[in-house]
Amino acid sequence: MLLMIDNYDSFTYNVVQYLAELGADVQVYRNDEITVEQIEALRPERLVVSPGPCTPNEAGISMDAIRHFAGKLPILGICLGHQA
After folding, report:
1. Would you tell me how many other CB atoms lie within 10 Å of the CB of residue 53?
2. Is the Cβ–Cβ distance between 66 and 24 less than 8 Å?
3. pTM surpassing 0.85?
């Protein structure tokens, strides 16, 4: 399963659709609706951090998730997610 952290950006579901078309099982969670512990319990195989407004420091769980899963999971950041 691929877990997408949604940073409240309208482009997020375009990316989700593309990933699903490529065969990915995608689960989407808003950046303020899930914790690192909950992500860990879901056991994703990959993590994608979506685009969003503002800066990485205002991206909810995104920075903590990147720090926690760095080196453990493949992580793709898009726009704001890449900045994080």
Report:
1. 10
2. no
3. yes
pLDDT by residue for the chain (84 residues), tens digit each? 999 999 999 999 999 999 999 999 999 999 999 999 999 999 999 999 998 877 778 888 999 999 999 999 999 999 876 665
Domain that holds residue 77: 2-83
Lookup: tokens for 83:
């900045």
Which CATH number does the domain housing residue 28 bear? 3.40.50.880
Cα angle: 75, vertex 81, 83; to 5 degrees = 110
Query: Dihedral sign, CA of 40, 43, 45, 50?
Result: negative
